[in-house]
Amino acid sequence: MSFQRYLSRRIKWDKRLIGIFGAKGVGKTTLLLQHIKSAYGDSHEALYLPLDNIWFQERQMLSETVKQFYEKGGRHLFLDNIHRYGNWMQTIERLLEDYPDMQVVFTAPLLAEGEMPDLSFGGKGNWYTLHTMSFREYLSYEGALELKPVPLDELLLNHAEITQQVMDEINVVPVFRNYLEHGCYPFYWEDPDAFNFRLQDLVRDSVDVDLPAVHHMSNSVSRKMKQLLILLAKEAPEFPRMQTLISKNEMDNVQIHKLLGYVEGIRALRILQVRKEGGGLARSYRSFLANTNLLASLFREMERIYWGETFFVDQMSNCGTVELLHNGDYRVNGKYTFVIGDPLMDYERIKNVENAFAAIHGQPKSVGNKIPIWALGLCY
User: Fold this and answer.
1) Looking at residues 6-20, what average pLDDT do you find?
2) pTM attached to this predicted model
3) From start to end of the chain, where are the E strands?
4) CB under 8 Å to 298, separation ≥6 — which residues?
5) Residue of 30, 77, 106, 343 with fewest CB within 10 Å of its CB?
């Protein structure tokens, strides 16, 4: 209970139906258990059920368990990994109908863009996404520094003061280096030596277990999914021509785009389409490992600028929108332009440009519109 994720304070826990989505390993289960402990203690009003447990493969076990729970006064039902239970959307609808005064909270994996089902149930549900840990959270997790989230607008307005305050408190460089290697997931300290193996297992389980459970994927499609993921990870940040992907995987354009959506949905990779100078979208892309821990686990020998770009795209995507511009710059929330680089690069072209900043991997402090890239990890 000493460390709780940022989302625990944002969730409106009094709502009748709550869905918490997130990639495997980010801490959804712990978040549920912490809330149950703090809100209900040992009260029989709340029940936690992990639906990936083999007990619930028998179709009647869930309905019988919930019925007994309700009859004994239970009113708060927490269903973890609900996607592992067949027809889970219909199951939720049935529970809401059968027990009109019972709260239902569930967790499920992230779904691909455009694949999110209609879970409105008459507008009763509240949906949340739990992201990997931000650098700010990691500072708290490590006991190094307690900071409240700094909204991006406020951070960019006062970045010199904010970064100086952090540096006055801690030596941020080694802490940030550790974050890049193992700070995105809260299970690192359970077994540091096995962290990289567990991280790779999470990605494999997401493809082999979670995706088929959500999308009823066949074995052949699952194999192609893994082949595509490996190819994109090896090529990153370069992105193969779409025709190459279609040819290698023996799939058509629609099928390839569906698989690319699944890759992004499990948060293994992020794929950004280049925006042309005129504002439209080009037929070119760049891909990024979803976070720097995956980058460290799979490919330790990468240029420093790619480490910086991966960190930037991850942190900014988790709290806003990120667009890749034709010249390699990034636009965040449709307002701010960022150049990602190192201290040796020339940033004269943005020196006097409004709302333009350089996020620099390896710069010790803020100077003008040049910001240490770690500061962008303080936003959530």
Assistant:
1) 96
2) 0.91
3) 17-22, 46-50, 76-80, 103-108, 125-130, 269-275, 281-289, 322-325, 330-332, 336-341, 356-360, 370-372
4) 200, 233, 289
5) 343
Domains of the chain in start order, with CATH, are 6-130 (3.40.50.300), 136-377 (no CATH)
Contact 20, 107 (CB under 8 A): yes
- Torsion angle defined by CA atoms of residues 340, 345, 348 and 353, in that order, rounded to the nearest 10 degrees: 0
- CA nearest 288: which of 306, 305, 301, 300? 306
Q: Give the integer Cα–Cα distance in Å for 346 and 102.
A: 60
Check if the beta carbon of residue 89 is closer than 8 Å to that of residue 119. yes
Q: How confident is the model at residue 118 (pLDDT cuts 50, 70, 90)?
A: low
Residues whose CB is less than 8 angstroms from the CB of residue 92 and which lie 6 or more positions away in sequence, other chains included: 17, 82, 104, 106, 119, 121
- Residue 80 CA to residue 32 CA, distance in Å, equals 8
Q: What is the pLDDT of residues 51-62, one digit of tens each?
A: 999 989 887 899
At residue 144's C-alpha, the angle toward residues 23 and 182, to 5°, is 35
